[in-house]
Specification:
This protein is about 5% helix and about 60% strand. By secondary structure, the chain is mainly beta. It has a domain at about 190-335.
Length: about 325
């Protein structure tokens, strides 16, 4: 408890100092005949939102008033460049925020180092935003959006258009998307909900939790767990050791896994499907009537069961029009 009190006492003066830092640069300008906006925000927070015209407002504060702090704006041949600069040396702490309003149709390109990026209420704009360590948040947008972060989170909500998210270590959250959605991360977790359009994901060891998809789906992981529920559309997966859990799914399956298992409940097949695993087991509960299904399964070392019929090495069951073809090396099969 004493340590907490000490930390608070130390933090309070720092907070006061941050609030009292002198303003070292400001901007409040409006521009005409702009078709592209390119923003380099450095450490500043960057906010882009819908407006009747292109306008740039911003302010920077710093602990030391040094030459070199500036928010520079230039409009050349319809390309508005907004660039935050700081002294090459001598600075200790600083902060800032830049807000840019854009009308419909203006392309937006943003780059920051540590500054947060927020995008809100845009319509008819194509957006590319990149950050190294500042998080990115985009919401209520009609237009194509491409977001990239090195070690920060990316969150998008209520977007109509193609959406692409890429990060190395940050969490990715995508909700309420109408359009094609793709996500790639080498280490962060993914949370995807309510997508009306195709979905493509790829991760190394982060988990993928996906719910409410209406469109074709392709999921790829090296070792992260994948959970898919309330989805309708063809499903393809590629997994090295990540387990796939399906719940309340309707469509066709093209699944490939090495060590990862395939577990499913309330699965309704609409077309013939294929499942291939090496060591991963397969266990799926179907909602299809048995008369709709047939099975052709092989396993070198494991038992296979289809609606109570058990065999080793090869299993053929049923004569329904929807054929499930499954192959494994040591992984067991159970269909019911």
């Amino acid at each position: 408890m004493k340590q907490i009190y000490l930390w608070l006492l130390l933090a309070m003066p720092l907070g006061v100092m941050a609030q009292d830092m002198p303003v070292v640069a400001e901007v409040n300008q409006q521009f005409e005949n702009v078709v592209d906006v390119a923003i380099k925000g450095e450490f500043c927070k960057v906010n882009v939102q819908q407006g009747q015209s292109v306008k740039v407002t911003g302010k920077m504060s710093a602990a030391k008033e040094l030459d070199g702090y500036a928010i520079n704006c230039s409009n050349e041949a319809g390309v508005l460049k907004v660039e935050v600069s700081k002294p090459d040396s001598g600075w200790t702490s600083h902060s800032g925020a830049v807000t840019v309003t854009v009308p419909k149709g203006v392309k937006v390109n943003i780059q920051t180092t540590s500054g947060y990026i927020t995008l809100n209420g845009l319509a008819g704009n194509t957006v590319l935003a990149q950050s190294k360590s500042g998080k990115i948040v985009a919401s209520d947008i009609q237009g194509d959006v491409t977001l990239k972060a090195k070690s920060a989170s990316i969150k998008v909500n209520n977007i109509t258009g193609q959406v692409s998210l890429t990060s190395k270590g940050g969490e990715q959250v995508a909700r309420n998307i109408k359009g094609a959605l793709s996500l790639y991360t080498s280490g962060g977790n993914m949370l995807v909900e309510n997508i009306d359009g195709s979905l493509k994901t790829e991760s190394t060891d982060g988990s993928q939790t996906i719910k409410g998809i209406n469109g074709d789906i392709y999921l790829k992981t090296k070792s992260g767990a994948m959970k898919l529920s309330e989805a309708k559309g063809s499903l393809g997966t590629l997994s090295a050791s990540g387990t796939l859990n399906l719940f309340d799914y309707e469509g066709s399956l093209q699944l490939v896994s090495t060590k990862g298992s395939v577990i499913g409940a309330r699965v309704k097949l609409t077309e013939s499907s294929n499942i291939n695993t090496t060591e991963g087991k397969i266990k799926i509960k179907f909602v299809n009537p048995k008369e709709e299904l047939s099975f052709l399964c092989e396993s070198q070392h494991a038992y296979m069961v289809a609606f109570g019929k058990s065999k080793k090495r090869k299993l053929k069951w049923g004569d329904g029009p929807i054929l499930v073809t499954a192959v494994s090396t040591t992984g067991a099969h159970n269909y019911y």
